[in-house]
Amino acid sequence: MWLKLGRRLGSLIIVMFLVATMVFFLTRLAPGDPAALMLGDQATAEDIARLRQVYGLDKPILVQFLLWLKEIATGNLGQSIFLQRPVIQAIAERAEPTFFLALFSVSVAALVGIPAGIASAVWRGRLVDQIVSGLAMLAANIPSFWLGLIFIQLFAVRLGWFPVAGYGEPGAPFMERILHLALPATVLGIVNSALIVRFTRASMLDVLSDDYIRTARSKGLSEARVVLRHAFGNALVPIITVVGLTAALLVGGAIVTETVFGLPGIGNLVVSAVLRRDYPVIQGALIVVAGIYVLINLLIDIIYTFVDPRVRY
């Protein structure tokens, strides 16, 4: 097992190198010069050239890439051109809203999607199945920004139950900040629950047709025990996969929702960096998100061995 995990870690390093390469060169392909944007329209060519030299933007692109790889290999993601502080510090300052938004969103998605998928599989072809499948299809096709605006209008503006936007004042109590995440987490949870519903339903249907389920029923076990203990336990591997991938995607995929709700998270940081061509921030944020994604995938593989003894690496 440890040998296999070691090989997997080696493959993850290769993946991260490929991600870093793509991020760097795709960032450089974007039009615009950060030095020109920083100095404004009144800057002379000499001023722009001088600033480009300060940040190493005048070097050949391959040299810039190798220097950047050397830096990230030591844990240094560089210095933000516009924020004038280390990129890792800028990301750390924005990490809390994104982390809790992803955590609460995947919790909502799992709490909605898994029971709904189980019910849809148990009552296959009946009214419950049709309602759940229809709602899942609707949720999968609703744009998160549109649903977010509807929730803001209804629950924040009209009813006044939740804050409209933001993450609270600096130094605000933790529970007040969590209240600001209630609406965006619910929006993302509803939208992402659709995939969990479909995977749970498909996995449960596959297990419910096995011989040992019929044997358990013939022994007189209650339907709840058959479904929840025998069927659901053996259907967990695909469900864990989709929940884990949903969590990984939410870490870096909540940019639109963060923008709609005015959350100062990593998504908003990336949007601002793209508009200002702040290369170090764009590259650093994407590398961090990609690293979290591959680590979650590795964690899922490890969890498999505990959930299903038949899985071996």
TrEMBL record:
<dbReference type="InterPro" id="IPR045621">
    <property type="entry name" value="BPD_transp_1_N"/>
</dbReference>
<keyword id="KW-0812">Transmembrane</keyword>
<protein>
    <submittedName>
        <fullName>ABC transporter permease subunit</fullName>
    </submittedName>
</protein>
<keyword id="KW-1133">Transmembrane helix</keyword>
<feature type="transmembrane region" description="Helical">
    <location>
        <begin position="99"/>
        <end position="123"/>
    </location>
</feature>
<comment type="similarity">
    <text>Belongs to the binding-protein-dependent transport system permease family.</text>
</comment>
<keyword id="KW-0472">Membrane</keyword>
<feature type="transmembrane region" description="Helical">
    <location>
        <begin position="12"/>
        <end position="30"/>
    </location>
</feature>
<feature type="transmembrane region" description="Helical">
    <location>
        <begin position="135"/>
        <end position="157"/>
    </location>
</feature>
<dbReference type="InterPro" id="IPR000515">
    <property type="entry name" value="MetI-like"/>
</dbReference>
<keyword id="KW-0813">Transport</keyword>
<feature type="transmembrane region" description="Helical">
    <location>
        <begin position="281"/>
        <end position="307"/>
    </location>
</feature>
<keyword id="KW-1003">Cell membrane</keyword>
<dbReference type="GO" id="GO:0055085">
    <property type="term" value="P:transmembrane transport"/>
</dbReference>
<dbReference type="GO" id="GO:0005886">
    <property type="term" value="C:plasma membrane"/>
</dbReference>
<feature type="domain" description="ABC transmembrane type-1">
    <location>
        <begin position="95"/>
        <end position="304"/>
    </location>
</feature>
<feature type="transmembrane region" description="Helical">
    <location>
        <begin position="235"/>
        <end position="261"/>
    </location>
</feature>
<dbReference type="Pfam" id="PF19300">
    <property type="entry name" value="BPD_transp_1_N"/>
</dbReference>
<feature type="transmembrane region" description="Helical">
    <location>
        <begin position="177"/>
        <end position="197"/>
    </location>
</feature>
<dbReference type="InterPro" id="IPR035906">
    <property type="entry name" value="MetI-like_sf"/>
</dbReference>
<dbReference type="Pfam" id="PF00528">
    <property type="entry name" value="BPD_transp_1"/>
</dbReference>
